[in-house]
Amino acid sequence: MEENFTMVAKTLFGFEELLANELIKLGAQDVKKGIRNVSFSGDKGFMYKANLGLRTAVKILKPIHSFTVNSEKDLYDKIYAMAWDNYLKPTGTLAVDATIHSDLFSHSLYIAQKTKDAIVDKFRDTTGQRPNVDLKFPDLKINVHVDRRQCTISLDASGDSLHKRGYKTATNIAPINEVLAAGLILLSGWDGQTDFMDPMCGSGTLLIEAAMIACNIPPNLMRKEFAFERWQDWDVDLFEKIEESLLKKTRDFHYKIIGYDKAPSAVAKTRDNVKNAQLEDFIEVKHEDFFKTQKGGDGKLHMVFNPPYGERLNIDMQEFYSHIGDTLKQNYPDTDAWFITSNLDALKHVGLRPSRKIQLFNAKLESRLVKYVMYEGSKKGKYMK
Fold first, then answer.
1. Which of 93, 121, 160, 337 sees the fewest Cβ atoms within 10 Å?
2. Does the pTM of the predicted model rise above 0.85?
């Protein structure tokens, strides 16, 4: 039996609760929420499962050593003293990244460099050989986190950010991050038991993440590589077992997932990405201007979208957001409509009162995820007051 160890899953601000719930459902132990992270414990197989199956995690770290640090020399000496041959061959490659919240050190790149020097010097002094730096495909990716006087050294189990699912080959001007998209859908409470729509689908990220949630498809099945595949204890048979066990838990989906975009290029990109994700059976994409559409069918509709903020797309914000409100009010009865925006002034022009507002960040932009409940009834729409 593999022994359990502590891990840390990093996430976006506002997604800590979602990620903790995902971890509990996957079977993690000792789940504890932090800020932009959740710590948990599990064995090597669970580390593989977390990387494959978590929708709202950006990265999984495996802490291997923690110590107090009082100076640059202290940092160097303590990293030098670690048994690096347990993790890396003298002829291997490494990359180091650092995050610093300390008055002792001000430059994270400098701390990453000192860490690399200590590891390389240790190998050179003990074996006569030294590992090389490879920033793209290292055998070992190391994370250094300094919080005031406390330093934690972790192995990066994921490598590239877990938002890089592997299905997206085509993007638009302002694409939404896949982890952010999955989190928005989970925050909206969509459970795959109604039709789903993204009326401004861009390159299709929200549609694809919604389909994977509805069918319980692991989000990172299509990734080319995880960092742990280059570790000395990599167990391909165990990984394949975990992959198989997750695939057995997929489920049927009996509703529609619909995407609109008024740009033909966006529709083409979305279709390409949907095909890459092998989700053509679940997602329908149409070349439509949302403002000229009406809700089809009688059932409940769940809508999640990412309208332009005016940051990278030049539009008349007042008019545009007013059109959103009018279209929802007049043409989309029995609809729960959610969207995210960083343009907080533009929200005032929607003309409807949101029933919920959730503070989030889209990259570095402070944003709001807002919900409008459009009740079934008169064409003018009895909306949430």
1. 121
2. yes
204: left (phi over 0), alpha (psi -120 to 50) or beta: left
Q: Among 53, 125, 131, which Cα is nearest to 96's?
A: 131
Strands 356-362 and 301-305: unpaired
Which burial class, exposed, middle or buried, applies to 56 when counting CB atoms under 10 A from its CB (0-12, 13-18, 19+)?
buried
Run of H or E including 178? helix 178-187
Question: What superfamily in CATH does domain 178-247+254-383 come from?
Answer: Vaccinia Virus protein VP39 (3.40.50.150)
Q: What is the pLDDT of residues 82-113, one digit of tens each?
A: 999 999 999 999 999 999 998 888 889 999 99
**Parallel, antiparallel, or unpaired: how do β-strands 301-305 and 335-341 relate?**
parallel
Distance between the two ends of the chain, CA-based, in angstroms? 57
Burial degree of 130 (CB within 10 A; 0-12, 13-18, 19+): middle
DSSP code at position 3: P
| Domain segments of the chain as ranges | 5-156, 178-247+254-383
- Residue pointed to by tokens 């201007």: 289
